[in-house]
Specification:
heterodimer, A: alpha+beta, 11 helices, 16 strands, B: alpha+beta, PH-domain like, seven-stranded antiparallel β-sheet, three-stranded mixed β-sheet, 10 strands, about 15% strand, rod-shaped
Chain lengths: ~375, ~375
């Protein structure tokens, strides 16, 4: 089986049995260029008839395609047009008004900042649009405060007036609160996100996530962490397969077994590399997750390597430390650019087959997430 | 000026994008799609995007949306339909707002400083003046309970008895105050004492051991009692809390609000309050008939410790007291001057017949690594303890 470097076209023969089916990073022996590539996991007999004439060797799919190569599937990136300075203005004005209104404006400022970030993000020539409002965030926060007051106040009152044993009621509440916040926040945020004429939505339930969360946390603890690749895949499957663009659902085919080796390697190398290997593990997992995500005719590829993750994180840290936090808006724009530059989307969407969904989802979970200081990326 | 614009139209039912042509009239927008025309009344249209440079204009009406990637469109709208212009924002007038950035940064800092140096002190003053003693008592108790939960209390009956007697004597000199003074003697080598709101006074055994007479201890206690009576500790807690709230706001850390777990470190007073407590404390001693020389002597001893700390002839933990009670040379001099103004008289011993050397060490069994004499004392007190 031949692999050729997308940079210098240097080719070499490799035993296909030695190449794992997931994406790996290869280093060209001639020019030193690093490029991820993968072997099409589909066995030849499963391929459609018209492709059966091709050689039985697995097809090599270089991630960065050679220039001028004939491609059936178009490949695109998300582009981000936001500027740090504009974001800084939004943050400063929002902070000022928050102080002047004794905190109330905070929610309106947050909605404005989100609107700016979404509006600056473009894919296939179309901007994302955020329709959430400050009022929704504010009422969501008020509701979340009421929920917290009842959830923690009732056990406290029962334990101090009836019997101290009622204090244990707080334990299930503590277990519940993070899944409620995460699922609620994600559902709210997606339902306010619009792109190319259709809204996103989320159909996962708290109950479903709670099951994964409790089972996964316990098993990870019992197996000293070795369950965590399986736990990770279950969580990703929950988040990705329940996410819809209009009526079209995302799909995720990841399996815990595939990440087992990566985890073992990370486990063994974590201490000798002073924890730095974590970045390489994170990069491998992120690449794996995106490669196993599809949406209708779309497939995804993520190209960031561990070294890129590391330099990106160090850059953010330095920016914040040297500017005493004032460069925070640039950290945000860098983060979005990091994702958009490394995430490639292949294929096309049949937009006329994507229907609109009803807008639902209240901002209660969002309010809880805000209180617990959980932030979810776009 | 253009009269037609190319735009994208979404009907809100599917994700399909339609190319349309739009034109403007003073009251409405005409959307021409596949040869058919639809009117969008301008007062029903909302602009949801196009507020920043390079961002296409997005107009929404119900579930439908129009996207016009032409900055000139809104400029034309301004001249064609001035009555509705206020509903739309001109994208060509979007700057990065450097002026706005500097202005809001300046105002934020100015407000922050104003709140810190003016609003918080004013609020704290009002709150301190109006707080009922029962609330102060509860506040103080919660502070002290945090400390007594971590540090064991001294169980020596002699110390408890002696300190109570000193407290009674001092209290008799301030009749009619609303507080119920409570003493806590904690087993800790540190030379320090605290006053929490509502009359909760904490003495660490290290401080008691550092005194050479009951009069010296009475001086410290009188000083701490004045912190309570003058509500210094209440004021300090309020200031600490409100500054914490301010900072958590400034850094967007809302957890800071709930994490109101404060330590005794919060009970720091400024130099003015310390001097007031010194002066009033000395007056209290004189009124109670206790020799104020002891108080001056003890503060002088602490001050000397501070100067000779390299020599290590006294415990380094004395520094702890100085960190929460800034003792400057001025303060000692000031106390000495005050002492001069008090008419000299013959004071009776505070605790007659009490062997202070023995009593003061009865709690912890003497300072570690001290003189031989103190070791003997320690052995004696061990017997007392067991």
């Amino acid at each position: 089986m031949k692999i050729s470097c997308p940079e210098c076209r240097h080719g070499s023969d490799i035993d296909p049995k030695k190449v794992p089916t997931r994406t790996v990073t290869a280093k060209c022996p001639k020019c030193g260029h690093r490029f991820p590539f993968s072997v099409d996991p589909a066995p030849p007999e499963a391929q459609p008839k018209d492709e059966a004439a091709k050689p039985a060797e697995p097809r090599v799919v270089p991630f960065i395609r050679p220039k001028g190569g004939q491609e059936a599937k178009p490949s695109r990136n998300i582009s981000f047009h936001g500027e740090g300075l504009s974001l800084l203005r939004l943050y400063l004005v929002s902070n000022l008004l928050t102080v002047l209104t004794l905190g109330v404006y905070y929610f309106w400022g947050k909605a404005k900042i989100r609107r700016y970030i979404y509006s600056s993000t473009e894919f296939m020539g179309e901007r994302f649009s955020y329709s959430g409002t400050g009022k929704e965030l504010f009422t969501g926060w008020l509701r979340a405060t009421a929920v917290m007051a009842v959830a923690f106040g009732v056990p406290k009152a029962l334990s101090s007036f009836v019997h101290p044993g009622f204090g244990v009621l707080v334990v299930p509440v503590m277990f519940m609160i993070v899944p409620v916040a995460l699922v609620g926040a994600w559902r709210y945020r997606l339902s306010r996100t619009d792109w190319h004429g259709a809204r996103f939505s989320f159909s996962g339930t708290v109950k479903e996530y709670l099951k994964i969360h409790v089972k996964g946390s316990l098993l990870t603890l019992i197996t000293l962490g070795f369950y965590s690749p399986y736990f990770h895949v279950q969580k990703e499957r929950f988040w990705r397969t329940n996410t819809c663009y209009g009526t079209a659902r995302f799909d995720y085919t990841g399996k815990g077994e595939d990440l087992k080796k990566d985890f073992l390697k990370a486990f063994l190398l974590f201490i000798p590399t002073f924890g730095l290997y974590w970045f390489w593990y994170k990069a491998a997992v992120t690449r794996y997750d995106w490669e196993h995500t599809t949406q209708g005719g779309l497939s995804f590829k993520f190209s960031a390597t561990g070294r890129q993750f590391l330099t990106f994180s160090i850059g953010n840290l330095l920016l914040l430390a040297l500017s005493l936090g004032f460069a925070y808006p640039w950290v945000i724009t860098r983060s979005i650019r990091f994702t958009s530059e490394h995430l490639t989307v292949e294929g096309d969407i049949e937009f006329n087959k994507v229907g609109q969904t009803a807008q639902h989802g209240r901002a209660v979970g969002e309010g809880l997430a805000g209180m617990l200081d959980i932030d979810m990326a776009l | 000026m253009k009269s037609f614009w190319k735009a994208f139209y979404y009907d809100g039912r599917t994700a399909e994008r339609h190319e349309v042509e739009i034109s403007l009239s003073p009251e409405a927008l005409c959307v021409k799609k596949d040869g058919k025309e639809a009117l969008w009344r301008l007062d029903e249209v909302d602009q949801t995007q196009g507020f920043n440079k390079g961002e296409p204009v997005r107009l929404e009406k119900g579930g439908e949306a129009l996207i016009i990637n032409d900055a000139e469109f809104v400029v034309s709208l301004y001249s064609m339909a001035p009555a509705h212009a206020a509903r739309f924002k001109r994208p060509d007038r979007m700057g990065r707002g450097v002026l706005l950035i500097s202005l809001s940064a300046f105002l934020t800092i100015a407000i922050g400083l104003g709140v810190y140096f003016w609003a918080i002190p004013a609020m704290v003053r009002v709150a301190t003046a109006n707080i009922p003693p029962s609330v102060e008592d509860r506040l103080g108790r919660s502070y002290v309970s945090g400390l007594t939960g971590m540090v064991p209390q001294c169980t020596s009956p002699e110390i408890i008895d002696s300190t109570d007697r000193i407290l009674k004597k001092l209290e008799s000199a301030v009749p009619g105050h609303p507080y119920d003074f409570k003493l806590y003697v904690l087993k800790n080598e540190t030379v320090n004492a605290f006053a929490a709101p509502g009359g909760h006074i904490v003495l660490l055994s290290g401080l008691i051991e550092a005194t050479e007479s009951p009069e010296e201890l009475a001086g410290v206690m009188a000083h701490e009692m004045q912190h309570v009576l003058k509500k210094h500790s209440t004021q300090a807690i309020f200031k600490d809390l409100s500054t914490g709230v301010l900072f958590s706001f400034a850094f967007g850390d809302l957890q800071g609000l709930s994490g109101a777990v404060r330590t005794m470190e919060g009970l720091r007073y400024g130099r003015n309050l310390e001097e007031e407590a010194d002066k009033k404390g000395m007056e209290l001693l004189v009124r109670a008939g206790i020799d104020p020389e002891g108080m001056v002597g003890f503060f002088e001893y602490l001050w000397e410790c501070e100067c000779k700390k390299e020599k290590k002839d006294k415990k380094a933990s004395v520094l702890e007291y100085l960190s929460t009670h800034p003792a400057t040379e001025n303060r000692v001099e000031y106390l000495k001057k005050n002492l001069g103004s008090v008419s000299p008289r013959n004071y009776e011993p505070l605790l007659p017949g009490v062997d202070w050397e023995r009593v003061k060490n009865s709690c912890s069994g003497g300072p570690p690594g001290g003189k031989e004499k103190q070791d003997e004392e320690a052995q004696k007190t061990d017997e007392v303890d067991t």
